[in-house]
Amino acid sequence: MQEGALYLESDGQLFFKPESIEEGWLEIPFHVQEKEPLRLVLELTRSYDYGIYQPYLNGVKLGEPLDLYRAETDLWEFHLMDFWPDPGAYTLRLECVGRNRDATGHYIGLNSLRLRERRPRVKAFGYDKDKDWRKEQILYR
Prior knowledge:
141 residues
């Protein structure tokens, strides 16, 4: 395997081994068909040689960086925000900002990007429909 390359694992995971922090970024384009309440969720691998990545959506910083270090490898869902995106094209960017002091690398493994539907009553009531996610990100726990 060559350093700094993308690899598609047999189970469908996108595995990226950047040669440096500066080269450590991924962009995932997706399209939204209709304005409806959604939750933006990433399923990422956490492991001993994984880095810390800051998510951006269409250039807007989302929350705090995601620390992908874990002594024993696992999969983790990172819930980024609840929002009503307008129809159109979007790009999620994951940018390496370093690594945990215990990590041996700054790799990343992306299993999925999901736009999870919210409960039907959220759509029916139109709750937060007019809030601009670019100005304020919300994540309901």
